[in-house]
């Protein structure tokens, strides 16, 4: 039995889902293929994902392939109650999600999704898989395999595998080239700045924006912030990534140095306490704190609360002002959670078209391949990544060159000299 906020919102949800679907041509093509081929016939899927209109496109695609789907939210602040209602009332999915639910409700919903006895699991941050391996080991027996679509989740899965704790194969959908390029770089880059602007209405031109982490997400953010006229400072722990940032013309500094100069701070690392109490203590009056990493641990919100003598909640939607003893005000967005989903609408549908196409095709592949895979973290087969890119190019009416037979022979031969 689903647990949603308001079933009467279904009509509004359907309209928004259909709007998003217009920008998801790759997933539409896969849905049509799945409807004809039924690669997931009779299988149960439990998913812990953001309950958004774009996610609805993936759920409908899995259903077209023959799967039954139970869905819990991977972030209470990103849940769209109208989308949840539409998925239940119009599309026949089980959904356990309410916008703004507390931690207890969040995990209760994950448990409900797992209690459907899934064959496959889809995760966004590894909370569902973690719950399976800790609190609900009684349900592990039916799970054949799963997919993870975030950097944070993949990091956790690799640690589980390293410790010998992972009980079934998981595929790192996050690590495909199409996902890195479209979702992390272009999606996070645009949607994070969108969330910051909606929450603060600040002018980014002329501001110093400090970006913690220069992975794909950090690169996308840095490129777009520079394009809007900001001065960009990057903080990193990886010498290669730091060098990459410097050679692209961005300032590179330790956070301890950047903290005193920044106007806007954005974390995208997948780690905790990237902005900590020492950094908060030297920040400018009015500094804006935003997180676009998966969990609300990258900014030390507890330290911020302990330092504050007053907290003004909701000075703007998804913006809380913390007043420190010396009168400085620091503005925390979206409670330190994902600012692009809590303060905006997440990635554009055209971006999630690629990520969810990877996810759908990987699920179809796992339906037969799971028996050959060990309990470890596996890559998405290269041919799936290539197929998604090919379908996307075709939807954009873009053609590319193809190798001639002679060129193929040349690449396969080591005997041909210069």
UniProtKB/TrEMBL annotation:
Family annotation (SUPFAM superfamilies): Formate/glycerate dehydrogenase catalytic domain-like (SSF52283), NAD(P)-binding Rossmann-fold domains (SSF51735)
Major location category of this protein: cytoplasm
Residues that, per the record, bind NAD(+): 150-152, 184, 213-220, 236, 271, 292-294, 340, 347
GO biological process, one term: one-carbon metabolic process
Annotated ranges, domain S-adenosyl-L-homocysteine hydrolase NAD binding: 184-346
GO terms for MF: adenosylhomocysteinase activity
Binding site for substrate: 52, 124, 179, 183
Cofactor binding note of this UniProt entry: Binds 1 NAD(+) per subunit.
GO cellular component, one term: cytosol
Catalytic EC class: hydrolase
Pathway in which this enzyme or protein is active: Amino-acid biosynthesis; L-homocysteine biosynthesis; L-homocysteine from S-adenosyl-L-homocysteine: step 1/1
InterPro entries tied to this protein: Adenosylhomocyst_ase-like_sf, Adenosylhomocysteinase-like, Ado_hCys_hydrolase_NAD-bd, NAD(P)-bd_dom_sf, S-Ado-L-homoCys_hydrolase_CS
Necessary cofactors: NAD(+)
EC number(s) stated in the UniProt entry for this protein: 3.13.2.1
Alphabetized UniProt keyword annotations: Cytoplasm, Hydrolase, NAD, One-carbon metabolism
Keyword tRNA-binding: no
Location(s) in or outside the cell: Cytoplasm
Domain of life: Bacteria
Family per similarity comment: Belongs to the adenosylhomocysteinase family.
PANTHER family with a match to the protein in the record: ADENOSYLHOMOCYSTEINASE
HAMAP family (alphabetical): AdoHcyase (MF_00563)
Function: May play a key role in the regulation of the intracellular concentration of adenosylhomocysteine.
Descriptive protein name: Adenosylhomocysteinase
Species per Swiss-Prot/TrEMBL record: Actinomadura livida
């Amino acid at each position: 039995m689903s647990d949603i906020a308001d079933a009467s919102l279904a009509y509004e949800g359907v309209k928004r889902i259909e709007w998003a679907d217009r920008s998801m041509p790759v997933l539409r093509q896969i849905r049509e293929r799945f409807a004809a081929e039924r690669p997931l016939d009779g299988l149960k899927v439990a998913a812990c994902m953001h309950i958004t209109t774009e996610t609805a496109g993936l759920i409908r695609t899995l259903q077209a392939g023959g799967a039954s789907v139970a869905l819990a939210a991977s972030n209470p602040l990103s849940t769209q109650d109208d989308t949840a209602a539409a998925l239940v009332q119009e599309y026949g999915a089980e959904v356990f999600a309410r916008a703004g639910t507390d931690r207890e409700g969040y995990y209760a919903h994950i448990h409900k999704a797992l209690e459907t006895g899934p064959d496959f699991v889809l995760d966004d941050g590894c909370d569902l898989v973690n719950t399976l391996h800790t609190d609900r080991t009684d349900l592990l027996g039916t799970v054949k395999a799963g997919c993870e679509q975030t950097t944070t989740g993949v990091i956790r899965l690799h640690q589980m595998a390293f410790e010998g704790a992972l009980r079934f194969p998981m595929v790192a959908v996050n690590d495909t080239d199409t996902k890195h390029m479209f979702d992390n770089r272009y999606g996070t880059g645009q949607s994070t700045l969108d969330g910051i602007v909606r929450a603060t209405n600040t002018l980014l031109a002329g501001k110093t924006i400090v970006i913690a982490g220069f992975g794909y997400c950090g690169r996308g953010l840095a490129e777009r912030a520079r394009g809007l006229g900001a001065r960009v400072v990057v903080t990193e722990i990886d010498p290669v990534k730091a060098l990459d940032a410097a050679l692209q013309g961005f300032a590179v500094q330790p956070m301890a140095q950047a903290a005193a100069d920044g106007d806007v701070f954005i974390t995208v690392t997948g780690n905790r306490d990237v902005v900590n109490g020492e950094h908060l203590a030297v920040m400018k009056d009015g500094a804006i704190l935003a997180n676009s990493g998966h969990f609300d641990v990258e900014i030390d919100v507890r330290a911020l609360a302990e330092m504050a003598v007053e907290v003004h909640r909701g000075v703007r939607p998804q913006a809380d002002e913390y007043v420190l003893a010396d009168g400085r005000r620091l503005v925390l967005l979206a409670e330190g959670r994902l600012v692009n989903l809590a303060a905006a609408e997440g990635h554009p549908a055209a971006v999630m078209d690629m990520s969810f196409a990877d996810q759908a095709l990987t699920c179809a592949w796992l339906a037969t391949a799971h028996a050959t895979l060990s309990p470890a973290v596996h890559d998405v087969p290269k041919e799936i990544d290539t197929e998604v890119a090919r379908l996307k190019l075709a939807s954009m009416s873009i053609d590319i060159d193809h190798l001639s037979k002679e060129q193929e022979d040349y690449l396969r031969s080591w005997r041909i000299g210069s």
